[in-house]
Specification:
The chain is an all-alpha fold and 117 residues long. α4 crosses α5.
Length: 117
């Protein structure tokens, strides 16, 4: 379906000129290479048992700041979150890593005491 010119909004000539000028500038920006250097990540997850596992799994997608600034969650909420990351988003979490990962998150970022070994 095509729209008739009378149906399209009318732009004043000055608007056409502004749009053309912006298009020319945008096209010119695409010709030059733009380099952006981000600062290195300095935040880390809390140290302790399971930190290495959490760093290798969680920090694949999330920043340490993102994990550490979440509200303190219950064991059930951390379990549901880890299972969602695995099932829905394809996080590289093996079945035998779910419980230890949840235990680390609960111990360091949870609302409940950690399980006793």
């Amino acid at each position: 379906m095509s729209l008739k010119p009378s149906v399209l909004p009318r732009l004043e000539a000055s608007h056409h000129e502004k749009i053309f000028a912006l298009a020319v500038v945008a096209a010119g920006l695409g010709a030059a290479e733009l380099r952006i250097t981000l600062p290195p990540e300095t935040a880390t997850l809390k140290p302790g048992p399971g930190a290495e596992r959490a760093n290798s799994i969680c920090l694949t997608c999330h920043s340490a700041d993102y994990v550490s600034t979440q509200p303190r969650l219950s064991r059930a909420a951390w379990t549901a979150g880890v299972q969602k990351m695995k099932a829905k988003y394809g996080a590289p979490i093996q079945d035998n890593q779910v419980d230890p990962l949840v235990e680390y998150l609960v111990r360091n970022y949870g609302t409940e005491p950690a399980k006793k070994p």
